[in-house]
Known about the structure:
CATH class of the largest domain: Alpha Beta
Bound molecules: 6-O-phosphono-beta-D-fructofuranose, manganese (II) ion
Mean pLDDT: 92
Number of strands: 13
Structural class: alpha+beta
Helix content: 25-40%
Amino acid sequence: MSNAPGTSKFQIDLRRHLRAQNICDNLVHLMCEIAEASKYVINAVRTGDLGVAGTSNLYGEEQLALDVLSDRIMRKRLIHSGVVCNIASEEMDEIYQCQASADGLYSVAYDPLDGSSLVDVNLAVGTIVSIYAGCDLLQPGRNQVAAMYILYGPRVSLVYTVGDGVHEFTMNNLMEFTLTRENVKMAAEGNIYAPGGLRNKYNAGDEKFIRHLEEKGCKLRYSGGFVPDINQVLMKGKGLFMYPALNGSPNGKLRVLFELNPMAFIIEHAGGAASNGSIPILDIVPESLDQRAPIYIGCREDVKTATAFVNGGKQEVKMEGSFVNG
Ligand code: F6P
Ligand code: MN
């Protein structure tokens, strides 16, 4: 979407951009509601007490940890949107049913405040959202109808895809999200890497892969926040994030429903790839809400190389199923 030739440049806001996509009104409404909720989350992040849950404020009232507060903000908005049947969040043990019917409704899995422990040290954090049509949340990520994240950094940005390109919006001084980059695309291969997890717990393949990247002269760019780390790889268009299996944690750390699927959906739609080392993240059939998986995500060739190292260079990696070039 762009301004007509010869007309002056005006800002395109999120709702207008969503309306130009080939999606139903309920989905436009839902995504705008999530964007609205993020304004309260960023307010909590910027100004909320950094006390942990159970401590009290100046008035002796109980304080909520920021992740718990963010979860309530998101959940309330989703429930009141009127277009959601099921909700699952990293902060909840079970699925929350808003409405029983699936007709024209959506289900949402989200991480309300990923990296919340980084707020104490003033690093960037984010909200990650995955949306499915109907009531089923335990299905492969490839079935998502939309995915988005909101990054709370020096600026607040929102990135979404509904399956037709990846688009970035930035919050302006009126707290509106306006289009800053449309159809973000990733190069086939990159030169930055963001490796999560303790390296002394890496298996041999991952260790060799990291050495390969170092020898290639790749730059280490890792903040410890999944949202800013993925955003960097995506917006630079060249790089790879990984959180591999670790000694003692064979499924790594990050969760399929709340973290991996939405990011994999976005990165694949930008021309990148995401794998657990053997199959695309989006083809994992989740069995539980809190399922975890290792992840290699970013430029297609980098993900391919990573998975080849993980498999001892033996196995040809399954990359098909990607949305772009696939
Ligand atoms: O899921 C939370 C998270 O903080 C992510 O944002 C980040 O990628 C990861 O965990 C880092 O984990 P750790 O510092 O424990 O390796
Ligand atoms: Mn998280």
